[in-house]
Amino acid sequence: MTVLGDLSDPEAALRTLAAERACWDTYLAYFEVLDEKRPVLEACACFTEDATITYGMKGGALEFTGRAEYADFLAGATAAQEMVAHVVGQHRFVWDGGTPRLITYVTVWQWFVADAHRGDLRPADYVAVGHSVDEFRDVGDAWLIARRTVRPAAGITAIGSRPA
């Protein structure tokens, strides 16, 4: 029997690479939905129904359990944004007992509705660098995020300010 994450066996290595590609596609789809201002429920479909999310980019860590709870948070968080762009930096997969974790750095550029009068071609109002660890689960037809932890990459790594 092959175990995903075992790169010493050619069959397992190919299955591992295919799983990592599916996880990567899910990960990027989440940001694509947010950046294109599509419905947050579509972004939440990248998570398992029982996902746990720890979001520490706004001071203390916020904890969410399940898609619905996270969707409520995202709806509020994205309402103030006129535009947003997530730029993924270095990343790597780590396997533990057949479970993949994706570790990444993400730079988030945000333009807020409150500053829309300054036009579309303006510098971002707020930029932050986050560190994300995502654990994925195979749900049959896709690999979805089962656990996410996001924190600042180093202290408050940001320029600009959030709206009041």
UniProtKB/TrEMBL annotation:
Top-level taxon of origin: Bacteria
One Pfam family hit: SnoaL_4
InterPro entries in the cross-refs: NTF2-like_dom_sf (IPR032710), SnoaL-like (IPR037401)
Domain SnoaL-like, first and last residues per copy: 15-149
Descriptive protein name: Nuclear transport factor 2 family protein
Source organism per UniProt: Pseudonocardia broussonetiae
Upper taxonomic lineage: Bacteria, Bacillati, Actinomycetota, Actinomycetes, Pseudonocardiales
